[in-house]
Design a protein that fits this description.
The protein is of the alpha/beta class and 701 residues long. It contains 20 helices and 30 strands. The protein is globular, with a radius of gyration of 25 Å. Bound molecules: adenosine-5'-monophosphate-propyl ester. Adenosine-5'-monophosphate-propyl ester binds next to helix 12, strand 20, strand 24 and strand 25.
Length: 701
């Protein structure tokens, strides 16, 4: 990154990152340490590379296996790693059945509806067992699903979502949960790619106090999938409120079925968990990459569950008696790993909240925490910034007490971290800043809560068994203390790592391994570092600070979006000739996408009309969360002489940074035009920081 300066066309998130100064350490309290799961100072030795891969047996031993594995890690075909080979297990058994003898009456899930007058609903492990069995029976007998089939699930944050996932897992059916906020078209693309015949959705749900129609997206999704050659023969519709239909869309006879009506036929049915191989896929999760086509990240059963269970125990410090609340959406990887699978495998109580954190006001999360005595709280910087902005004093009004709090998904500014620590955590809670990705299954870098001090703004060292390394563009190692940013990689495989990209093994190798693999013929795993796609600084104390993506991905309020996907959506507007999407620093959302449009020659449409069309194209093709903060309509784009759009220049303009030398452009004069247009209409300070604290990428190199 450092040596690609003026010739660089693109600018990534990492390059607009604020470089805040190194912070002082904060230490966990004695009270926290006295109860923590991981207090053994030898853990790093146990999980050293010398003991790799057998060290991960410790995580797999947290699970119940029908058949124990014979090979901990098979690396014979890099980078297609195979963990716990020969082992057989069932995820639904591990998350439910095995807890029944001692804990059947304990809450597995507490559902908190968004409307505050609707009471929370606790679902015991026994009730979860009954509901998952009945749902599994329906999926097997009514929908005809069996091991290895794929099912797309497009649902909001309700208990029926994990119930459906666990029912799939009980049968060995591979689920592909699409975040409920994605549009019908985005869902349809994912249905087609995964080859799902069945779509499971819900009529509607509540968000910001309003009913949202979810089922209407199913019709669009099915039509979109059909256009791509994939036939959906059943749409199964859960109902948010008994006896009501929150969707205005008619049910299509012979295709659409209300789950509650069909479930009557499966009352009391039990389905024996299907033993699956450790290497059988548990789920697909689509995520954005550098091309317009999302990647179906394929996760295993045994390695994945072992890894999320181990990290939930040691990093989240989950004990069975805790009340644990992660505010992420189950439609993203954080929700899969750390709302559903990790916490339930450990037999704890996992809280599911339907709505937005600030509804009806910014005191809501703290009221929920107080009322239900939540003691572990997990959220993202965007939510923390928003809650701080709208209710800086709110946490003081409530008598909640967290022992541990998590931040995930984006870099957190030190002053935001301190508010979280002082006000939300009341200086009692440990904070873990966990860095990882959809592809990783579970945490990669974080402090170990009872063993490492916290440092605001830094994720921390690799978690047990994860050995990070930072390389420059040429593949030279930037050791701890190097003071230059580079690309963070992981030296070794780990059980939670994806297996492949669904149907695209070559893309998997190219995206994650080709960059730093010196010899693709090598059978030695040491030659295959995993390339994460994030820029990072490696501090002298071994803590990693993540700067953001180094590719065409933007994390908007923790939602991962590909700029190419956004650009393709813009190009569906007939008047648009060219589109470029760039990341812009935002005080609440961390980053937001900004769109630049050049119109086709002769188009005289009012730019305001074009802006509306572009926004609605993005919302329809991707989803409302991808809505850009601005659409700039310009007569041309800054281009190289060979005609490539210089996104770097646009990013600089949008972020109020120096544009650098533009004299070599084919059309340098356009830069000034664009600058005047943008700067006259915007005024920005970067996320959570005062201008004095800010040092830009490149300035410290
Ligand atoms: O850029 C990093 C950022 O989120 C990206 C992964 O996004 P996704 O696959 O959607 O998973 C998000 C939740 C695990 C990463 O490439 N990211 C994630 N966690 C952090 C982070 N950036 C800074 N600090 C973090 N703790």
């Amino acid at each position: 990154m450092a040596d690609t300066k003026n010739e660089m066309l693109e600018t990534s998130e990492a390059q607009i990152a604020a470089h805040w100064k190194e912070e002082e350490y904060y230490y966990p309290t004695a009270k926290f340490i006295s109860q923590a799961n991981l207090v053994d100072h030898d853990v790093d030795k146990r999980f050293s590379l010398e003991n790799f891969p057998e060290n991960f047996k410790e995580y797999a031993d947290l699970l119940d296996w029908y058949k124990y594995w014979h090979t901990t890690l098979d690396t014979s075909n890099p980078p297609f790693w195979r963990w716990f080979v020969g082992g057989q297990l069932n995820v639904s058994y591990n998350c439910i059945d095995r807890h029944l003898p001692k804990n059947k009456g304990k809450a597995a899930i507490i559902f908190v509806p968004e409307l505050e007058n609707d009471p929370p609903l606790a679902i015991t492990y026994q009730e979860l067992y009954v509901r998952v069995n009945e749902t599994a029976a329906l999926l097997r007998e009514f929908a005809g699903l069996k091991k290895g089939d794929r099912v797309t699930i497009h649902m909001p944050m309700v208990p029926e979502l994990p119930i459906t996932m666990l029912a799939c897992a009980r049968l060995g059916v591979i689920h592909s949960v699409v975040f409920g906020g994605f549009s019908g078209m985005a869902c349809g693309d994912r249905i087609a790619d995964s080859g799902s015949r069945v779509l499971i959705t819900m009529d509607g749900y509540y968000r910001n106090g309003q009913v949202q129609d979810q089922k209407e997206k199913a019709d669009i999704a099915v039509a979109q999938a059909k256009g791509l050659g994939a036939e959906v023969d059943k749409v199964l519709v859960w109902r948010r409120r008994q006896g009501k239909n929150l969707s205005v869309t008619p049910m299509l006879k012979g295709r659409d079925y209300f789950m509650d009506e069909i479930l009557k036929d499966y009352k009391g049915k039990r389905v024996a968990p299907v033993p699956v191989a450790a290497e059988d896929p548990l789920f697909l999760m689509y995520t954005s990459g550098t091309t317009g086509k999302p990647k179906g990240i394929q996760h295993s059963t045994g390695g994945y569950l072992a890894y999320v269970t181990g990290t939930a125990k040691y990093i989240l410090d989950i004990h069975p008696e805790d009340i644990y609340w992660c505010m992420a959406d189950i439609g993203w990887i954080t929700g899969h790993s750390y709302i559903v699978y990790g916490p339930l495998a450990l037999g704890t109580t996992s809280l599911i909240y339907e709505g937005v954190p600030t509804y009806p006001d910014a005191g809501r999360p703290w009221r929920v925490a107080e009322q239900l005595d939540v003691n572990i709280f997990h959220t993202a910087p965007t939510a923390i910034r928003q809650l701080r902005k709208l209710g800086p004093e709110e946490p003081r009004k409530y008598n909640h007490h967290f022992k541990l709090m998590v931040t995930v998904g984006e870099p957190i500014e030190p002053n935001v971290w301190r508010w979280y620590y002082d006000e939300v955590g009341k200086k009692e809670a440990v904070i873990v800043d966990t860095w990882w990705q959809t592809e990783n299954g579970g945490f990669l870098c974080s402090t170990k809560p009872a063993l490492n001090p916290m440092k605001p703004g830094s994720a921390g060292p690799g978690v047990p068994g994860i050995h990070p390394v930072v390389y420059d563009e040429k593949g030279n190692e930037l050791p701890p203390g190097a003071e230059r940013a580079g690309n963070v990689c992981i030296r070794n495989p780990w059980p939670g790592i994806m297996q492949t990209i669904w149907g695209e093994p070559e893309r998997y190798v190219q995206t994650y391994y080709a960059k730093y693999c010196k010899n693709q013929q090598s059978k030695d795993w040491k030659d295959w570092p995993y390339f994460a796609g994030d820029g990072a600084l490696y501090a002298g104390d071994g803590y990693i600070r993540i700067l953001g993506r180094v590719d065409d991905v933007i994390n908007v309020a923790g939602h991962r979006l590909g700029t190419k996907e956004l650009e393709s959506a813009c190009l569906t507007v007939p008047e648009v000739a060219e589109a470029a999407v760039v990341p812009v620093i935002d005080p609440i959302k961390g980053r937001v996408p900004e769109v630049y449009i050049a119109l086709k020659p002769g188009v005289t449409t009012d730019p305001k009309e074009i802006q509306k069309k572009v926004i609605s194209a993005i919302e329809n093709i991707i989803g409302k969360m991808a809505r850009p903060s601005h659409v700039w309509v310009s007569e041309d784009m800054p281009k190289t002489r060979s005609g490539k759009i210089m996104r770097r220049v646009l990013t600089a303009v949008s972020n109020n940074m120096p544009v650098g030398d533009v004299t070599t452009l084919a059309n340098p004069e356009i830069v000034e035009h664009i600058k005047i247009m943008v700067q006259s209409q915007t005024k920005r300070t970067p996320a959570g920081e005062t201008p004095d604290d800010i040092k830009r990428f490149g300035q410290n190199e």
